User: What shape does this take?
Amino acid sequence: MARVEAEPGGPRRSGRRPAGSGTREAILDAARAAFTQRGYDGASIRQIAREASVDPALVHHYFGTKQGVFTEAMHFPFDPSVLVPEVLAGDRSQIGERLARLFLTIWEDEQARGPIVALIRSAVTNEQAATMLREFVSEALVARVARELDAPDAALRPPLVAAQLVGLALLRYVIKLEPLASADPETLVAAVAPTVQRYLTGDLGPG
Amino acid sequence: MARVEAEPGGPRRSGRRPAGSGTREAILDAARAAFTQRGYDGASIRQIAREASVDPALVHHYFGTKQGVFTEAMHFPFDPSVLVPEVLAGDRSQIGERLARLFLTIWEDEQARGPIVALIRSAVTNEQAATMLREFVSEALVARVARELDAPDAALRPPLVAAQLVGLALLRYVIKLEPLASADPETLVAAVAPTVQRYLTGDLGPG
DNA sequence: GTCTATATCGTGATAGAC
DNA sequence: GTCTATCACGATATAGAC
Assistant: This one.
């Protein structure tokens, strides 16, 4: 999970694949869209096949099971092993702002948002997807950050950040709660950055 | 939505209803459990009927459609029109702590948690449920609080609080991300209270 | 008030022909 | 590589007997 996709020089993903048969990629594109819109349980192989103008049996032929399609479709177009060190590298007193801005920038990019929305939508009702999300957040994000913190309660801090940012994304992009949904990204960065900063470097408790 | 349930003096909800036929209540209990565990789309009338030891056709007889069952099952065991004024009434400089503690107290009560988890699980993939959640958060919670704030950006403040608290609940109770899931409630109250406080009464922006 | 029977439709998965 | 046909289910909803 979470590898950078090899975008082979050509035009962006839209319309049909040119080289080879392209069927496999067409199925993956349709699958990504379906899982994004309806989550794992709500998406169906037949519907994905229809969208890709392909026979449902082909989906099984390429990926075996529905879970197989999901796993293949979930490769993120960004790489936490690159981004997290970048955020950690700079001035620690502004890490909250950098992290909040990076998070919102990724979510504002519709193409990057897709797989994450798909994973969240799926994880809420599907236990396997929940495990994928848990492991992704824990290992790719939380563990990397926690390792670099020297504050007390280092293990609790990154999950608190995750809770704040995931909650924001959920209400803004999935539930579309106003006025959060149409707020300016920089307004939200400014509002949330101090929270993230405190969770990572500040005082957590009363005593 | 969000009325207090009339608990008629007797024993707590477990086992079978004694008075009357009780079938209707048995169906609602089973429905609440099913929607809580699997969300709207994942729950089925047949499965609810099985759980209630009742014929599936009876469910339709009592509630018409699946949406009808859902709506009836979603009455919360707490009343925002009572709780919100209580939180707002006290010392404004400690409103963050009061709100965070109230929120976590409700979520720690498994019986109270059920319907909210059901609504969240459902809202993430079902548009009708998303509308219900949106309206509940907007009207029952956000609007009531925003009305009482005299700070600038009063409209944006309660949704920010909602994002923080919903995110916390999602990762702790639904996704069960450690160490958030097994953290002591008071630890979380202490961690989150200053955030809530700042969103409601503090400085939101950089300028 | 309760249940049988059925209409209509969708699902994931597989075997096997071409 | 692609598609037809099918297995074995499950879904919501309705009509109508008892």
Observations:
- Chain A touches chain B through 47 residues (CB under 8 Å).
